[in-house]
Design goal:
This protein is α/β, with parallel strands linked by helices. It has 2 domains: 3-58 and 364-407, Urease, subunit C, domain 1; 59-356, TIM Barrel (Alpha-Beta Barrel). Helix content is 31%, strand content 22%. Strands 1, 2, 3, 4, 5, 15, 16 and 17 form an 8-stranded mixed beta sheet that branches. It has a 4-stranded parallel beta sheet with strand order 11-12-13-14. Strands 6-7-8 form a 3-stranded parallel beta sheet. Helix 7 (254-262) links the parallel strand 13 (245-251) and strand 14. Helix 4 runs parallel beside helix 5 (208-220) and helix 6 packs parallel to helix 7 (254-262). The two termini are 22 Å apart. It comes from Muricoccus roseus.
């Protein structure tokens, strides 16, 4: 069993406003065994001198689509499954090299992809999958053109982000099938979206009974529902129906944010998605119907952060990027810093995102018993978030499950 003692570094603890010196971290196998402000002794561990660099938990992105190698999601679904899987592996490697050691996939990644990572068949972040996102005909999981009347087109392909199910019984069955296949939670499309061609932003996805059915099935399995949401009306009805994870929330208003906070919900804004789409979406194949919808949600994004913070609604870190836009993943830090304190942003990408992954205490922290997921960074993220950007250039070491995937410490 390989073991390491990391010493002589600055320790970043999520929630703290300053780094802490004099800490040592012992990694044995795939776990952190000891964290101490005194020297740790071990007869077998390799001592790693950090020379004053920052040691911190691996980052957690709570809203990704690892199989979205194309911005045009209809084309992404149509590609051969073998090709989609190879492209997903490349996307995931990029995420890991940016310091994201765990990601929560919000539609597309089959549980087998998570297993492939766990077995080190893919160099990527740990994946918390929901399987295919559930949506109604004409909703955000339906990427068919208006003239395309084929049923269930490409729903079983690796490259498809979602599946269509209409009616309470169909929603129950789809949720049960995803859970049976290994989904860790259920994702539903409860509002219109940007990347889909037929649903305006204001459109409400699913009836209340359909949403409640998905929530009941998730609760029966000991998990929760995450919902794609933009408008205040859609967010409110989702919370009323028991949805726990509120994705995007760009158009939320104060009263609804307060209600969601009281219900114990967690929001997951993804502001960088709209920045990326505005910059390159059209050039990368986003259809004109989708391009026209970008500004509706983009301009309200920063205000939504302030509204949710004032309401006490927790916000996890998410990016939601597609295709060639994945390179902008870490820009989410920069965007949030225009409104939020840096230490809160780091919590969003560590301990809070870990809660949505249902791995609280196991990821997003450097503590005894946690997964050995860590970064060594040249810089102080609490003072300069740019050291977490630039495609991981300032990350001298990236470790997941006790294995180095990058090591430039020598």
């Amino acid at each position: 069993m390989t073991s390491y003692i990391f010493t002589n570094g600055q320790f970043l603890e999520p929630g703290a406003t300053e780094l802490r010196g004099g800490m040592e971290v012992l990694v044995e196998g795939d776990r952190i065994r000891e964290v101490s402000d005194r020297p740790i002794t071990s007869s077998s561990a390799t001592r790693v001198n950090l020379r004053g660099k920052t040691i911190m938990p691996g980052l957690v992105d709570a809203h990704v689509h690892v199989i979205a190698a194309m911005v045009n999601l209809a084309e992404n679904a149509a590609q051969p499954s073998s090709l989609a899987m190879m492209r997903a592996a490349k996307v995931m490697h990029g995420m890991l090299m940016r310091g994201f050691t765990t990601v929560r996939d919000l539609g597309g990644a089959e549980p087998g992809i998570a297993t492939a990572v766990d077995e080190f068949l893919i160099d990527g972040p740990r994946v918390i999958p929901c399987g295919k996102a559930l949506g109604q005909t004409g909703g955000h999981s339906d990427f068919r053109a208006r003239s395309d009347d084929r049923e269930g087109v490409f729903a079983n392909r690796v490259g498809s982000l979602g599946r269509i199910c209409d009616g309470v019984d169909a929603v129950r069955r789809a949720a049960r099938e995803e859970i049976k296949s290994g989904a860790r939670f259920i994702k539903i499309m409860a509002n219109g979206g940007v990347a889909s061609p037929n649903d305006p932003i204001h459109a409400l996805g699913f009836s209340r009974d359909e949403i409640r059915a998905s929530v009941e099935e998730a609760e029966n399995a000991g998990t929760y529902v995450a919902a794609h949401l933009y408008t205040d009306k859609a967010i409110r009805r989702a919370v009323e129906c028991g949805v726990h994870s509120l994705e995007h929330c760009n158009l939320i208003r104060p009263n609804t944010a307060e209600m969601a906070a009281k219900a114990g919900a967690i929001a997951c804004p993804t502001l960088v998605a709209y920045e990326g789409l505005a910059l390159e979406g059209k050039a990368l194949g986003l259809g004109p119907e989708s391009v026209a919808k970008i500004e509706t949600v983009r301009t309200a994004g920063l205000e939504s952060l302030d509204i949710m913070r004032r309401a006490g609604l927790p916000m996890a870190f998410g990016s939601d990027l597609l295709g060639g836009l994945h390179k902008y993943q870490s820009m989410e830090f920069e965007i949030r810093a225009r409104v939020l304190p840096v230490h809160e942003i780091l919590v969003s990408a560590t301990t809070l995102a870990a809660r949505l992954c249902m791995m609280e205490g196991e990821i997003g922290v450097l503590a005894p018993g946690a997964k050995a997921d860590l970064l060594v960074v040249d810089g102080d993220p609490l003072k300069d978030l740019s050291c977490l950007q630039n495609q991981g250039a300032a990350m001298l070491a990236i470790m997941r499950d006790g294995r180095f995937f990058k090591n430039e410490l020598n």
